[in-house]
Fold this protein.
Amino acid sequence: MLKRSLHDVVVIGAGVVGAACAYYAARAGLAVAVVDRGPVAGGTTGAGEGNLLVSDKEPGPELDLALYSTGLWRELAAELGEAVEYEPKGGLVVASGEAGMAALRKFAAHQAEVGVESAEIAGERLRELEPHLAEGLAGGFHYPQDAQVQPALAAAHLLRAARAAGAALYLGEAVTAVRTGADGAVTGVVTERRTIEAPAVVNAAGTWGGELAELAGVRLPVMPRRGFVLVTEPLPRVVRHKVYAADYVADVASGSAALQTSAVVEGTPAGPVLIGASRERVGFDRTLSVEVLHRLAANAVKLFPVLAEVTVQRAYRGFRPYLPDHLPAVGADARVAGLYHACGHEGAGIGLAPATGRLIADQLTGQPPALDLTPFRPDRFIEEES
């Protein structure tokens, strides 16, 4: 016989977005249950680099969400301390030629209009910020608001704080059904072991958010977008900032299913250097692609020649939860009363998690949200179906 429990809200997903939803909901006084079919950070979160970026986003709803989240991450870092390895190290975007610099200059000017801080760095001064950068680069832009956390630790400590505020955590339990009443409103979920009754369910299932939405009888076109990361041996602080080539911004904004790679290199407090980034839509194919790994390594060495003699200890892959318009689904679903979504953040989920969690908690408790959630409407794809 299935166990039964009663809560105010069930959060499905124990990645960093689900953890943030649980944290803010529990802090608001709600009785929260978090359910995940695997461990904490067992999906996309555990395969992430931990980027908290404003530098790669053009003005619009996602950048608004990122700027809001930047302030919330600072608050969380003050509360959680060094446990999540929060590092406000800033980002450095570099261009190899004058055409690239012109594009970065225009991009940064538009961002400045909505509160993004940046400073142009001439080519001859780049090595003051990054002594090991390749010579001959045209220049770049420094973004002091960019930061980094260790994503799995961030999810774990947010959930620990949520549990301290009364949240329950059920790991290793797949949700098999989203229950609704005679009026069509959510009444809870069923897992392999228990029934959890609640008038609200938050879909924070990441790349599997579309499958979870189907259990509730709605369509959310979340697709996996595979990416690889190389991890080097521990090093002294060879790379001080998150450093990436100008074409990374275009790759982030692209909807292409084809393989794209661009140079993204950053150090970590623990010593290893993380090297990305690749994007391709190949379903949930976990095959290790030697071609992609070679591309990532070559791109990194072009930026930091010193890495040519460094050992790569491992590579890992993950699946970004991609939605066709590059915006996450955040907020109440007008099609099913009591159903909320917090997924589809693609590669920005770590950075956008606190803002997403806070906005969901505000909706759950009837508080006015800090941002207009219209651009993130979960049902905005209905028009495509008609």
Remarks:
- The chain is about 30% helix and 25% strand.
- The CA atoms of residues 221 and 384 lie 11 Å apart.
- The first strand starts at residue 3 and ends at 6.
